[in-house]
Amino acid sequence: MKKLIAALIAGLFATAAFAQAPAAPEAAKTEAAAPKAKKAKKAHKAKKAKKAAEAK
């Protein structure tokens, strides 16, 4: 029983340490993808405006 309690406590410490680790690599990926998303959104707006102008 003591081994089980020791294992549970060790697991809690490991979980707490993992939860406090910084997530810097994923933030860098998100920032790198942001300019592509902005370009795509801008291109979509341009296409939509062009279609609206042609419809008139």
From TrEMBL:
Alphabetical keyword list: Signal
Domain of life where this protein originates: Bacteria
Region ranges (Disordered): 28-56
Basic residues bias (residue ranges): 36-50
Signal sequence, renumbered to the chain: 1-19
Protein name: Uncharacterized protein
Protein species of origin: Herbaspirillum lusitanum
